[in-house]
């Protein structure tokens, strides 16, 4: 049966398809790979004409027409298989978990081309209904937005509906910032500890956890070279699940999938040294007193201990099943053990409990109080914008009334 609608070039057509006895609406559109003629079918000619009008409106509003019948789940699975090749290992695990546990359960069955702002809001509401933090809802929204952006680029959909809804607001974390007096108490408490200098480095440099426990002796001179960081990464099964081992780390064919531009060095087990994720994170910090003396003393001890990886700080002795101390083995410090040790130190010192990462806030505020320019503080902390640095400066003025005039001369320990 011939076309029943008069048309001009580019206006589309309605015709009857003998093969399946369906009326079809079709219009030619440009796609990244050339031209396409998406077809939408209907039972009657009238319905097909209405669909052609919808397609024309969609083309006028969005510059393209949705051409696929993929579900959101099918697209996310296909998209992430390619996207993961560009992600660092930890973000890749986080994104995979968000897709699997939150995005697909909430809207995975929806048609990709039929997705609406209401579906995006439903995803946000679903994450929050689970009692999860606002930051989790925000991450789910951002991942979906990136996936839809790429679907638009491939001509699969006409618009990114995630950009038509407000992203969830990230909650303001409750921070406990250690004052200068608290910092002094911590240093006095740990000055005779084997790893006391590790906590001095946290308070006096603002270095991140991985940068500190991954610091190698050869990168300590009159500066601290923070060009590598220690990370504990999760292995993947390389056998497709055939080995029967529950833990991927025990799989004979275990693997770690890194993007091509990812620099890394394996230390042992699941512990790696990796490059910072941005150029601003790769920095050199001058080594001044009293931290210089702390670290020099630590290095003089470290070279007499087992230290196969040449790290400044290595793990404390482990215990056997009977609780007996084993000899030092020079193993890297695991981040989880490092966190527990930090909270134990704060308890011993009798100061407020705070996250290890919050020591960076103390450093930032003390540097500002000491008159250090904001640009220099950015360089020390490894921030790529002044706005980020400002978020780290939250010390109460009452706490700062006793703060040190500078960080290099005021931490005088008792004998």
Summarize the structure.
The chain has about 425 residues and is of the alpha+beta class. Helix content is about 40%, strand content about 10%.
Q: SSE layout and pairings?
A:
Elements: E1 13-17, E2 22-26, E3 29-31, E4 34-36, E5 39-42, H1 45-62, H2 72-83, H3 89-107, H4 117-129, H5 134-153, H6 180-190, H7 196-205, H8 209-213, E6 223-226, E7 229-232, E8 264-268, E9 271-274, E10 283-286, H9 291-302, H10 335-349, H11 359-369, H12 374-381, H13 386-391, H14 397-400
Antiparallel strand pairs: 1-2, 2-5, 3-4, 6-10, 7-9, 8-9
Features:
disordered N terminus; 10 strands; hpI Integrase, Chain A; elongated; three-stranded antiparallel sheet; 415 residues
């Amino acid at each position: 049966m011939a076309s029943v609608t008069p048309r001009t070039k580019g206006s589309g057509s309605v015709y009857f398809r003998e093969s399946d006895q369906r009326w079809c609406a079709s219009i030619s559109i440009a796609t990244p790979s050339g031209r396409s003629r998406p077809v939408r079918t209907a039972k009657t000619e009238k319905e097909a004409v209405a669909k052609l009008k919808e397609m024309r409106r969609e083309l006028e509003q969005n510059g393209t027409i949705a051409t696929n019948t993929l579900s959101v789940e099918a697209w996310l699975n296909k998209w992430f298989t390619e996207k993961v090749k560009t992600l660092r290992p930890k973000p890749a695990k986080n994104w995979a978990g968000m897709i699997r546990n939150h995005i697909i359960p909430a809207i995975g069955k929806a048609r990709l081309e039929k997705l609406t702002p209401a579906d995006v809001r439903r995803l946000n509401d679903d994450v929050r209904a689970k009692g999860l933090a606002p930051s989790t809802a925000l991450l789910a929204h951002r991942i979906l937005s990136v996936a839809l952006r790429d679907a638009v680029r491939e001509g699969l959909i006409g618009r990114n509906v995630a950009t038509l809804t407000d992203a969830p607001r990230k909650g303001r974390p409750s921070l406990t910032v250690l004052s200068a007096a608290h910092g002094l108490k911590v240093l006095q408490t740990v000055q005779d500890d084997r790893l006391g200098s590790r906590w001095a480095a946290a308070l006096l440099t603002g270095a991140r956890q991985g940068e500190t426990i991954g610091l190698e002796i050869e990168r300590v001179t009159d500066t601290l070279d923070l060009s590598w960081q220690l990370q504990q990464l999760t292995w993947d099964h390389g056998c497709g699940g055939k080995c029967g081992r529950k833990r991927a780390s025990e799989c004979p064919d275990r693997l770690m999938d890194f993007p091509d531009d990812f620099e890394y060095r394996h230390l042992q087990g699941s512990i790696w040294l990796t490059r910072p994720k941005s150029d601003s994170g790769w920095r050199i910090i001058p080594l001044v007193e009293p931290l210089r003396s702390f670290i020099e003393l630590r290095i003089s001890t470290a070279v007499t201990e087992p230290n196969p990886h040449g790290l400044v700080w290595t793990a404390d002795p482990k215990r056997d099943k009977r609780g007996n101390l084993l000899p030092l083995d020079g193993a890297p410090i695991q981040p989880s053990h490092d966190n527990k040790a930090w909270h134990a130190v704060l308890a011993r010192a009798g100061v407020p409990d705070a996250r290890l990462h919050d020591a960076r806030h103390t450093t930032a505020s003390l540097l500002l109080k000491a008159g250090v320019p904001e640009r220099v503080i950015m360089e020390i902390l490894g921030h790529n914008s002044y706005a980020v640095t400002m978020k780290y400066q939250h010390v109460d003025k009452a706490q700062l009334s006793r703060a040190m005039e500078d960080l290099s001369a005021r931490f005088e320990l008792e004998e």
